[in-house]
């Protein structure tokens, strides 16, 4: 790879005494695994910039599964994710690392990811809206085709007050059964456009994305979710600590 490409670090871990093994999300190559030789040494100019949420320009070489980083430059300062929003960003990064295959380009998703981080960094309120929209964008970019607006059984348009039960690989079918897989037509219309005008639609969107992402994530729990739970417990144990959000 001779040219420069925009990228973000999704995850990194030490490799040998002075190097880093990095998971990048790039604009035109998707997710790639890259070895940054000497990046942890004191003299390395890369030491401070290879961090999550920092917009980068990178270039690499190699044709194997693990590439070799040739250079990296920050485009701007890291997006300021702090407090609970930081864990939302870590969750998004972990989703991409777990779900995306290496070497498959997702240029539209790259900008969905950038927009999600920007909204998280600027948000003074709940990150839930940004997370749900990104999860839906991720599913759509992976080719997860589902028709929210028509009953999979009859082909008729969904009705706001009718209940539809989700069936994997089929869609939403009108049903009188009310359980975790059931959604109203009103909630499905909100999912179709990624707009959640009230708490009920936002809650149902989270329920649906959990169902839809589960086959891709498997049974292994998300590390970011456990870190967030620890963060919440710590804040609960210290009720006088100033809220960071």
Q: Could you characterize the architecture of this molecule?
A:
This protein is of the alpha+beta class and 245 residues long. The protein has six helices and eight strands. The strands form two sheets. Strands 1-2-3-5-4 form a five-stranded mixed beta barrel. A three-stranded antiparallel beta sheet has the order 7-6-8. A hairpin with a 3-residue loop joins strand 2 and strand 3. Helix 1 runs antiparallel to helix 6 and helix 2 runs antiparallel to helix 3. The longest helix has 19 residues. The C terminus is likely disordered.
Summarize the structure.
The protein is of the alpha+beta class and 245 residues long.
């Amino acid at each position: 790879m001779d040219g420069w490409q925009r990228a973000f670090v999704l995850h990194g871990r030490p490799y040998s005494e002075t190097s880093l093994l990095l998971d990048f999300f790039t604009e035109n190559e998707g997710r790639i695994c890259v070895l940054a030789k000497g990046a942890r040494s004191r003299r390395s100019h890369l030491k401070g910039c290879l961090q999550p949420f920092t917009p980068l320009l990178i270039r690499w070489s190699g044709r194997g599964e693990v590439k070799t980083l040739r250079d990296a430059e920050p485009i701007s300062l890291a997006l300021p994710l702090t407090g609970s929003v930081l864990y939302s960003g870590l969750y998004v990064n972990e989703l991409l690392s777990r779900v995306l295959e290496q070497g498959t380009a997702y240029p539209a998703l790259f900008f969905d990811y950038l927009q999600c981080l920007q909204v998280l960094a600027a948000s003074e309120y709940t990150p839930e809206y940004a997370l749900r929209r990104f999860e839906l964008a991720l599913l759509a970019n992976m080719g997860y085709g589902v028709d929210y607006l028509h009953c999979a059984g009859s082909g008729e348009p969904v009705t706001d007050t009718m209940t539809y039960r989700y069936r994997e690989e089929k869609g939403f079918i009108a049903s009188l059964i009310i359980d975790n897989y059931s959604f109203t037509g009103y909630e499905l219309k909100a999912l179709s456009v990624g707009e959640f005008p009230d708490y009920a639609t936002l809650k149902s969107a989270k329920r649906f994305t959990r169902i839809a992402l589960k086959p891709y994530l498997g049974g292994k729990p998300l590390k970011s979710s456990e870190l967030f739970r620890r963060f919440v417990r710590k804040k609960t144990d210290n009720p006088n600590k100033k809220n960071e959000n």
